[in-house]
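User: My instructor asked us to take a sequence, write out its structure as C-alpha cells, and then describe one feature of it. I'm not sure where to start. Here is the sequence I was given:
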Amino acid sequence: MNGQRDLMGLVSVVVVATALFGSSSPPTTVDEVIERHTKAMGGRAAIEAIQSIEIDLHIADPKFEVDGTYFAARPGKMRIDVNAGGERVFTEAFDGQKGWQSESKGAAQKVATEKATAALRHGIELSGKLFGLHELKRRGHRIELAGRENIDGIQYYVLRLTLSDGYLMTLFVDPKNWLITRRRDVGPLHVDVDPTPTTIEQRSSDFRTIGGVQFAFASSETDLQSGKVLETTAVRSVKINPALAPTIFERL
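Assistant: Let's start with the prediction itself. The C-alpha cells for your sequence are:
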C-alpha cells in the first residue's frame, strides 16, 4: 500500500509540474508561436472585435515631415490622408478591389499603379492593425516557422509570411514579450517615388494597450544594407471601431 501511495504521489507531482511549467516550455511549431503572440496582443476575441480603425500619426523622412490619418476596415479596405502645414497634400486608398490616389489639393483622383495597389493591400494584412496573426491563414496566406535568429542579443522566433499573391516578408517575434518587434521585406519604401528594391527592416516599439489590444506607437524603417534610417513614424492616437462611411475608401 505504501508503494502504491508513493507511486500515486509521484504521478500527482508530475501532473502538477506539467500544469505549472508545461506552458513555459519553448514552442516548437508555428501554431504555438502564433498562439503565444496572439495572447500577448490581447487575445483572439479582442483582436477580432476590431472592425475598423483610425490612427493619427506623424511621419518623418530625411527630407520632410508630415502628419497622416490612417483608416482601415474589415474585410480589407484602407485610406491614408497626408497633411503638411494643415493642408492635405496626398491621399491613397484601397477600396477592396483597386487602389487610387490624389496627389494634391484639387488634384483629380486617379487609379494607383499595380505595384502601389499591391503595397497598399499588403499593408492591410499585417498583424497589428486590423487583423491578428492567427487570422492570416484563413485569409489565404501562409506562415512558416523558420527557426531562431539572434539579433542584438535577442533570440527571435523567425516567421516567414507568404501573402496570397506570393509577396514574402519575415516577422521576428521577441520571446520576452511575444510581440512582433521587427519585420523585414525586400522592396522600395515608396514604390511610386523610387522603385529601387532594398531590404527594409521595420522596428516597432512603445506598445500600448488600446481596446484590450497592443499597438506599437513608434516604428522606424531602415535600409539594412546601408544602415540608413529611411522613415520614422510616431502614433499620436488610435481609435477602435470609429464610424467610417464606406465612401471614404472609394473617393475623396
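For the description part of your assignment, you could build on this observation: The chain has one domain: 27-249. Try explaining in your own words what that tells you about the chain.
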